[in-house]
Amino acid sequence: MDAHQHQHGGSDTPAGDRQRPDGGHAHSGHEHGGHEHGGHEHGGHKHGGHEHGVGHGHGHHPYLPAHIDLTALAVPDTMALLRPVLPEPPAAICEVGAGLGALAAALAGAGYRVTAVEPDPDSAAAAADRGLDVVNAELRDHQAPGRYEAVLFTRSLHHIEDLPGAIEHALGLLTPSGVLVLEEFARERANEAAARFLYDAIDLLAAAGVASTSQEDDEGRPQPTDPWQRWQHNFVPSGHESPEEAAHRPLHTGTDIVAALRAAGLTVTDEPTIGLWRMVAQRLADTPVANDVARRVRDTEARRLADGSLPALGRFLVARR
Ligand SMILES: C[S@@+](CC[C@H](N)C(=O)[O-])C[C@H]1O[C@@H](n2cnc3c(N)ncnc32)[C@H](O)[C@@H]1O
Predict the structure, then answer these.
(1) Where are the domains of the chain?
(2) Across all residues in the chain, what is the average pLDDT?
(3) What is the pLDDT of residue 192?
(4) Residue 124 CA, ligand 1 centroid: distance in Å
(5) Of 5, 64, 156, best ligand 1 pocket probe by most atoms within 8 Å of the beta carbon
(6) What are the distances in angstroms from CA 42 to CA 4, 24, 170?
(7) Which atom, in ligand 1's list, is nearest to the CA of 28?
(8) 35-91 pLDDT per residue, tens
C-alpha cells in the first residue's frame, strides 16, 4: 500500500540570500524553516527569514512564480538526455519527486507507462490534474517491487536523508535489467566564475524589479559583496552553523550521490549539465517576463558551459547493476 502523506509544502521564496540549488522544496522531514547546509534551504513562509525585493507567485505552485515551471522549461533538455538511456515505450517508468509532473507528462506522451511519486500534496494534485498516475507519498512508502524498467530521480535524491536506503529502495522497484537515472546538482563544482554568473544575474534582475534578492542572510548578517565569498557564505559549511542549521542538513552533493551509487555496486555514467539557471529562476518574481528571463539565463549558461567559461553545476547520472 502506498502512503498518502500530507506534508508541509515548503516554498523557495527567497528569504535572506541563502538558497537552494534547485527551485524545489524538500520533503525529508526538515523543511519547516529547514536549512540545507551548503545549499541552504528555506522552508518558505519566512520564519526567521528576511524577505526582500519583489513579490512572489500565488496559487499556482508553493514555491515558484505562477509564470515559471522549471520542470516544463527543462523538459526538452531532459527528454533529449533520457531518450538514449531509457528502454523503448511502453516501458514502465517511475519518476521520484515528480513535482508538478511536466516531465512525467512528456514521458507519458511519448508512450511510457509512468508513475509519478510525489510527497507534496499540492504538487501531487497538480500532476494528477495532468491525467498522470500519481502516488502521493515519499519514495520509501511506494511499494512496487520489480515493477519498473527505469526509476528517475529528478533533483529529488539530494533531498532524501538516507541516501543508501533510498538507492536500495529504488533498486527494489526495478526489474533486474532496470536502470536508475538521476538529474542532480554538483554545487561542489562551483568556482568564482559560477558565483559571478549567479549573483550578477540575480542582482541585475533584482535591480530591474523582476527578481528578489537580499542584502542579509537568514541570520541577519550582511552578505559579502564579493561573489565568491558570497557563494561560500551561502553554500559552504562554516563550522559555525546554528544548532538548527546543523540539525537540518539533508542535502547531499552530487559527489555524495555518485559515491553512494557506486557503493551500492552500480556502474555509473556521469554527464555534466547546466544547473545555475535554476538558482536564478527560483528568485524571479511573478511577472510575465519571468519565463523568458529564465530561458535566457539557461541558454547563456549552456553556451558558457560549452565554451568552458563556466563549470557544470548539474549532473546527469545513469546507474546500472
Ligand atoms: C527540487 S524538487 C524537483 C521537482 C521536479 N522533479 C523538478 O525537477 O523540477 C524536489 C522534489 O522531490 C520531492 N521529494 C522530496 N523528498 C522526497 C522523497 N522522500 N520521496 C519522493 N520525493 C521527494 C519534493 O516534493 C519535490 O517535488
Answers:
(1) 1-321
(2) 80
(3) 98
(4) 10
(5) 156
(6) 24, 10, 27
(7) 16
(8) 333 333 333 322 222 223 333 333 344 456 666 777 788 899 899 999 999 999 999
**Closest C-alpha among 254, 82, 260 to residue 171:** 260
Select the CATH number that applies to the domain covering 1-321 from these four: 3.40.50.150, 3.40.50.12280, 3.50.30.40, 3.30.230.10.
3.40.50.150
DSSP label at 215? S
Query: What Cα–Cα distance (Å) separates residue 174 from each residue in 126, 241, 266?
Result: 26, 39, 13
User: Is the CB of residue 117 below 6 angstroms from any atom belonging to ligand 1?
Assistant: yes
Angle (CA) 187-152-131 rounded to 5° is 120
Low-confidence ranges of the chain (pLDDT < 50): 1-21, 23-62, 247-249
Contacts for 50 with CB less than 8 Å, ≥ 6 apart: 15, 16, 214, 216, 218, 220
Instruction: Please state the atom number of ligand 1 nearest to the C-alpha of residue 103.
Output: 6
Is the minimum distance from the CB of 119 to ligand 1 under 6 angstroms?
yes
CB within 8 A of 242, min separation 6: which ones?
Answer: 219
Give the SS3 label for residue 93.
Answer: strand
Q: For residue 270, give the C-alpha cell.
A: 556521469
Query: Residue 98 CA: which ligand 1 atom is closest?
Result: 6
Query: What's the confidence (pLDDT) of residue 142?
Result: 98
